[in-house]
Design brief:
GO molecular function: tubulin binding
Helix content: 40-55%
CATH topology of the largest domain: Recoverin, domain 1
Largest sheet: 2 strands, antiparallel
GO cellular component, one term: microtubule
Strand content: under 5%
Main location: cytoplasm
Radius of gyration: 26 Å
Keywords: Cytoplasm
Shape: elongated
Distance between the termini: 76 Å
Region (Disordered): 126-175
């Protein structure tokens, strides 16, 4: 049945990156991932905020300090998201459509590598750390100044091309 296919997908996502999970319950992080990877969260009708709200709502029906939800509660959550995602359908029809989206899906691992490189990219794009001529190309907020920041591109001052200290001596003294 559709539900058993959905439950297979639910189990795959439930244990994803969570070695303590038996696959019968899913945590918030993996619940969001499932909604993302299966296209239930589309960023228009259903946003990550919707997904979080629904998760926390059904989680409360279980126990005050529950961290996970069961497939039964997952179904309730999906009915609710289905009404947002497939507005024109009944909750049950919408649920079937969500199950269709879930069918045969595996947790995408592409996001995993992305997460680790984020720091490096942040560092590279943190303009406050830029020095020398690169610094001149951005304003305080890190917005590029475009051509204005690179106007002195042709510099025939007799320095060896690529000489890092060009022009720094005068700048320091006149400042």
């Amino acid at each position: 049945t559709m539900a058993s296919e959905a439950e297979k997908t639910f189990k795959k996502f439930a244990v994803f990156g969570d070695s303590s999970s038996s696959g019968t319950e899913i945590n918030n992080k993996n619940f969001s991932k499932l909604c993302k990877d299966c296209g239930i969260m589309d960023g228009k009708m259903v946003t990550s905020t919707d997904v979080d709200i629904v998760f926390n709502k059904v989680k409360l029906t279980r126990a005050k300090n529950a961290r996970t939800i069961t497939f039964q509660q997952f179904t309730e959550a999906m009915k609710e998201l289905a009404q947002k995602r497939f507005k024109e359908k009944s909750p049950d029809e919408g649920l079937q459509d969500i199950y269709k989206l879930m069918e045969g899906k595996d947790p995408a691992t592409t996001g995993v590598t992305k997460a680790t490189t984020v720091g490096a990219v942040d560092r590279l794009t943190d303009t406050s750390k830029y020095t020398g001529s690169h610094k001149e190309r951005f304003d305080e907020s890190g917005k590029g100044k475009g051509i204005a920041g690179r106007e002195e591109t042709t510099d025939n001052s007799g320095y060896v091309s690529g000489y890092k200290g060009a022009g720094t001596y005068d700048k320091k003294n006149s400042a």
